[in-house]
Amino acid sequence: MTRQISSVIGGKPADDASGTTYESINPARTSEVVAGVRLAGEATFAWACGVASAAQREWAAVPAPVRGRVIASIGRLVEANTETLARLVTAEIGKPYAEALGEVREIVDTCDFFLGEGRRLYGQTVPSEMPDKSLFTFRVPVGVAAVITAGNFPVAVPSWYLVPALLCGNAVVWKPAEYAAASAHALYRLFAAAGLPDGVLNIVFADGPTTFAGLDAALGEGTVQKVGFTGSTAVGRQIGELCGRHLQSPCLELGGKNPMVIMPDADLDLAVEGALFSGFGTAGQRCTSLGTVLVHESVHNEFVGRYARAVAGASVGDPAGEVLYGPMLDQRFAERFEQYLGWIEPHHAVVTGPTGRITAGNPRGDFDGADGLYYHPVVVDGVRPHDRLFLEETFGPIVGVASFDSLDEAVELANRPGYGLSSSIYTTDPRAAFRFRSGIGAGMVSVNNSTSGAEAHLPFGGNGKSGNGSRQSGQWVLDQFTRWQSLNWDYSGRLQKAQMDVAEI
Ligand code: UN1
Prior knowledge:
Elements: E1 3-5, E2 7-9, E3 12-14, E4 21-25, E5 33-38, H1 42-61, H2 64-80, H3 82-93, H4 97-117, E6 124-126, E7 133-141, E8 144-148, H5 156-167, E9 171-175, H6 181-193, E10 201-203, H7 208-221, E11 226-230, H8 233-245, E12 251-253, E13 258-262, H9 268-280, E14 290-296, H10 300-313, H11 331-341, E15 349-350, E16 378-381, H12 388-391, E17 398-404, H13 407-415, E18 422-426, H14 430-439, E19 444-447, H15 478-481, E20 482-490
Parallel strand pairs: 1-5, 8-9, 8-11, 9-10, 11-12, 13-14, 13-18, 14-17, 16-17, 18-19
Antiparallel strand pairs: 2-3, 4-5, 6-7, 7-20, 15-16
Helix pairs in contact: 1-7, 2-4, 2-6, 3-4, 3-6, 4-5, 9-10, 13-14
The chain binds 2-aminohexanedioic acid (UN1).
InterPro entries: Ald_DH/histidinol_DH (IPR016161), Ald_DH_C (IPR016163), Ald_DH_CS_GLU (IPR029510), Ald_DH_N (IPR016162), Aldehyde_DH_dom (IPR015590), ALDH7A1-like (IPR044638)
EC number: 1.2.1.3
Region (Disordered): 1-23
């Protein structure tokens, strides 16, 4: 029997009669329903925020090192259930099993980092300009975080929000992507089993418009103090506008058009390997996926030849097996990808086999794609700076190639689309690498490595169309889930006035 899941609010299943139902489908076998999902109605999201708000005070009063111990338990529980969770991720969104295992590992890494933060959460002591007076700063939790996540990393990316938010003493209402609901629900259960008090973490399944309406109401009622969102730039703008009206600054992690620059002195085989992984890993459906390869014109033909061969030899197929990539995340992503394929123009050269859906007799693997959302890998050469393919994110297995003749031109081209998430350069010249780093507008830069695969304790995030400059992961995310409070303590026994009673030498 298909598993049935519903929202969990205040520790209890919320079988919202006003909502609709949704079927989460296995994209590798679209006839297979992974879970039936009960979606919440409009009032439910705001209600969950109220429940979280009521539970938050008590959670904030738990000493941070004790909260850190709960995070440690979450990490252990996730680790002990690695294979089960990874299998579910593979079945629900078609991510190759090896990548799904890596994704679960990323949650454990995140817990490993933050369990220790429970014993830090450092504030500062600050000198005063007056005698017999001490100044301090404290990190205080923001309150309730509403976390809205995409389904391409259905468990790791949510953990980047949930783990630090909880560690800092916040309560959370998490709204995962519907098409990844079963994976999210399984992760929720592991978090809950680690001993979080009821109401501190709540999961609400809802569609986009319902979530917006509920979030608007909750922000208005003052039961949400931070919104975290990972997803498209278009929806990020709407979240930003909504939060702006309520004087909130969200944590936004949006799309990317991530460039890879290949200099004349680059190790081309290494570059091909990097471009294969970041262009086609997760079927190109990472926010850090490679968008355009910018190759120096002296090595352009050589690179394109080797890249086309590597891509043509890659296996696409059943994500349970050893493949470079599997199907698209779900039907909507497949439809959108078909639109991106329409951006290929007559002046482009498609240097790899056919484009479009793989329906039967996949030449790259022993499987029949007819029942899955599989697409051929596409490499398009001759992409120009005004082309849609150059300027806009194409979430799927397609990579553009363009050429340049100086590093300055490469940097200019790399910045042109106006995103700014990840980037990479292949070179053996450290001067070129450092010049690229200082010229690029991206939040993340790799040298001789691909655009994707960030580690869980470095700042993760982007600029421009990739986000509002907020950063996740490591110590930097603490600034999202805490606010600074200053303490001004005068023990002089008299009224000392700042700026007016500055001590004289
Ligand atoms: C995303 O696609 O939203 O760096 C995140 C990477 C992964 C995370 C991607 N660790 O590619």
